[in-house]
Write a structure and sequence with these properties.
This is Response regulator. Residues 157-166 have a biased composition (Basic and acidic residues). This protein is of the alpha/beta class. Helices cover 47% and strands 17% of the residues. The protein has one domain (3-135): Response regulator (Rossmann fold), CATH 3.40.50.2300. The strands form two sheets. Strands 2-1-3-4-5 form a five-stranded parallel β-sheet, sandwiched between helices. Strands 6-7 form a two-stranded antiparallel sheet. Helix 2 (38-47) packs parallel to helix 3 and helix 3 packs parallel to helix 4 (89-99). It is elongated.
């Protein structure tokens, strides 16, 4: 199951983006988290791994370029996508190059373009993990699936004498 993080300072834009991803059949089942503050998003990324992050470019606390650069330093195999309504393409291109942004999507986005770029980004994430030697094995993927279906199934608590604690 893919984990996707969305960051935009505009709550309405975040809701629309989240809705667009939830309506996508190929992305069905993806876990999506949203943040309006890039600092809060970075804190979350430090404790939880994400496959892909979609960030707005123009945010008041920290630009999308700065956020994605910090993300690259903290989670280099997390794929980064930038959204922007800005027409300042020179600044956007600099941010894209500095933060190694996978794709740039203009606002307003087309549903099919957004979906295709996110799917390609998730494929890129798999490639990066394999390249780094972090790709999960088939056994790891099956264990993850079982844990998602039946939380606690794979984690057994035992007492000091070895008996199972329910």
């Amino acid at each position: 199951m893919s984990r996707i993080l969305l960051v935009d300072d505009e709550p309405n834009m975040l809701s629309a983006l989240q809705r667009a991803l939830r309506q996508s059949k190929p992305l069905a089942g993806a876990q999506i988290e949203t943040f309006t503050n890039p600092f809060d998003a970075l804190n979350r990324i430090c404790v939880c791994e994400f496959d892909l992050v979609v960030s707005d470019f123009m945010m008041p606390e920290m630009s999308g370029g700065e956020f994605l650069q910090a993300l690259k330093d903290v989670a280099p195999t997390t794929v980064r996508i930038m959204l922007s309504a800005s027409t300042d393409f020179k600044t956007a291109m600099a941010a894209i190059n500095d933060a190694h942004v996978f794709r740039f999507i203009p606002k307003p986005w087309q549903q099919s373009e957004l979906e295709q770029n996110i799917l390609r980004g998730l494929e890129e994430r798999q490639r990066l993990l394999e390249e780094a030697g972090h790709a999960p094995s088939a056994q790891d993927l099956e264990a993850q699936r079982l844990e998602e279906e039946e939380p606690g199934l794979l984690h057994v608590k035992r007492s000091d004498d070895g008996s199972v604690i329910l």
